[in-house]
Amino acid sequence: MIRIVLPYHLRILAHVGAEVQLEVEGPATRNALLDALEDRYPMLSGTIRDHNTGQRRPLLRFYACELDLSHEPPDTPLPEAVVSGAEPFFIIGAIAGG
């Protein structure tokens, strides 16, 4: 069971708490995880990835095991600690400005 921590605005939209748990069929990659998340919570479709390109939205970042995974290829396997549920996968809303 993979644990996902969502930013506040996506928690409100999906009507969930700070963390959700999902099973991912097949290889556990970021794309597979986000596909499972959007399947379970269709209201999140298009909020994390662009509908047309599938690219990460500009002000969202992905972290796991104290690593920034935002620029990793989307089909890179997730860290084993995330797959086992020992560590969560974080979707973080970035802050812009100066």
Give a description of the structure.
With 98 residues, this protein is of the alpha+beta class. The chain has a single domain, classed as Beta-grasp domain (Ubiquitin-like (UB roll), Roll), CATH 3.10.20.30. Helices cover 22% and strands 20% of the residues. It has helices at residues 8-14, 30-40, 80-83; strands spanning 2-5, 19-22, 60-64, 67-68, 89-93. The chain starts with a strand and ends in a 5-residue tail after the last strand.
Briefly say what this structure is:
It is built from three helices and five strands. With 98 residues, it is an alpha+beta fold.
Shape field: globular
Question: What percent of residues are in strands?
Answer: 15-25%
CATH superfamily: Beta-grasp domain
Roughly what percent helix? 10-25%
Please indicate the count of domains: 1
Helices, by number, come to 3
H/E element string?
EHEHEEHE
Provide the residue-averaged pLDDT: 93
- Give the CATH class: Alpha Beta
User: In the CATH classification, which architecture applies?
Assistant: Roll
Low-confidence stretches: none
CATH fold name, please?
Ubiquitin-like (UB roll)
